[in-house]
């Protein structure tokens, strides 16, 4: 009885290659596109490590680091930046039937929250806020000393809470706990975004934010730039410069922009990592593995 003819490797190789290619394409199709928004003075070239991490754990994922408002251009007013990023990001969303993930670093975290809040048709699944001053900034840092050499944290309000000051991005989220009346009256970005000022769009913005499935808040005590560092977790100073946590913030208690609702439905994840300086959040493998990778499905 004659045996079955043996197929040579040369015959099987093309079939195996096609099968492997099919599996890789199928795997990549299972991951939602990722959009990365950089922070103050950054550019896409700063995110090579992050792109490498994503390619290792989620091969084939479509990742876009938006190339807008790089370096000194990141000082432009945040609403101007929000409009620019919206135009760049909208087409990516439209081509993503299953939604997208946002990874937004530092100042970019505020830009992304404003984007989500003002886009009724967004399809953001997970919003990763990576060491972003979500409740504002108030501290003497190297950035502050370089940008405003004539000011310190105690008197920067004199510039930031003016019409001229509001044309500088940092002033859009400068939150002086000792001059809340001026902040509420003159801040035209964070106070509106948080629902702390009268805003005719507040209900719509809240509804838009609540369309996300997950809010991931990432930060740590050794950041060195975000001040207080707990602002990355929606905590902030009271008038005595004592940090009060998210659950004690009026914007949470009043649910002015949806934070309490997100928390109540289990949509907020907090990831605290010690030992990470501000400029290292997007290049630290431990941060990526523990705080980002689990949500990029």
Automatic annotation (TrEMBL):
Residues 1-30 form the signal peptide. Belongs to the palmitoyl-protein thioesterase family. InterPro entries: AB_hydrolase_fold. Its main location: other. It comes from the Eukaryota. Its EC number is 3.1.2.2. It catalyses: S-hexadecanoyl-N-acetylcysteamine + H2O = N-acetylcysteamine + hexadecanoate + H(+). Catalyzes the cleavage of thioester bonds from S-palmitoyl-CoA or S-palmitoyl-N-acetylcysteamine (unbranched structures) but does not have activity against palmitoylcysteine or palmitoylated proteins, branched structures or bulky head groups. Conversely, hydrolyzes both long and short chain fatty acyl-CoA substrate. This is palmitoyl-CoA hydrolase. PANTHER family: LYSOSOMAL THIOESTERASE PPT2 (PTHR11247:SF27), PALMITOYL-PROTEIN THIOESTERASE/DOLICHYLDIPHOSPHATASE 1 (PTHR11247). It is an enzyme of class 3 (hydrolase). It is found in: Lysosome. Keywords: Glycoprotein, Hydrolase, Lysosome, Signal. One of its GO terms (molecular function) is palmitoyl hydrolase activity. One of its GO terms (cellular component) is lysosome.
């Amino acid at each position: 009885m004659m045996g079955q003819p043996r197929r040579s490797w040369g015959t099987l190789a093309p079939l195996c290659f096609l099968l492997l290619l099919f599996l890789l394409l199928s795997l990549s199709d299972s991951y939602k596109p990722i959009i990365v928004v950089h922070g103050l003075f950054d550019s896409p070239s700063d995110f090579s490590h992050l792109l490498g991490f994503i390619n290792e754990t989620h091969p084939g994922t479509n990742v876009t680091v938006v190339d807008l408002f790089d370096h000194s251009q990141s000082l432009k007013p945040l609403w101007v930046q929000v409009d620019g990023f919206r135009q760049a990001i909208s087409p990516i969303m439209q081509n993503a039937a299953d939604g997208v993930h946002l990874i937004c670093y530092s100042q970019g975290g505020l830009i992304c929250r404003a984007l989500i809040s003002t886009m009724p048709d967004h399809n953001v699944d997970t919003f990763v806020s990576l060491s972003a001053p979500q409740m504002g900034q108030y501290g003497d840092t190297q950035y502050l000393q370089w940008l405003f050499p004539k000011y310190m944290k105690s008197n920067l309000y004199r510039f930031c809470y003016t019409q001229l000051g509001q044309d500088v991005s940092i002033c859009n989220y400068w939150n002086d706990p000792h001059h809340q009346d001026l902040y509420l009256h003159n801040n035209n970005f964070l106070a509106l975004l948080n629902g702390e000022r009268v805003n005719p769009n507040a209900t719509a913005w809240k509804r838009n934010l609540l369309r996300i499935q997950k809010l991931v808040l990432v930060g740590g005590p050794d950041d060195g730039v975000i001040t207080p560092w707990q602002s990355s977790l929606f905590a902030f100073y009271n008038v005595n410069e004592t940090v009060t946590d998210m659950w004690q913030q009026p914007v949470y208690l009043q649910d002015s922009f949806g934070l309490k609702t997100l928390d109540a439905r289990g949509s907020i994840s907090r990831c605290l990592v010690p030992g990470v300086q501000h400029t290292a959040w997007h290049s630290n493998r431990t941060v990526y593995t523990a705080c980002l990778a689990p949500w990029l499905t």
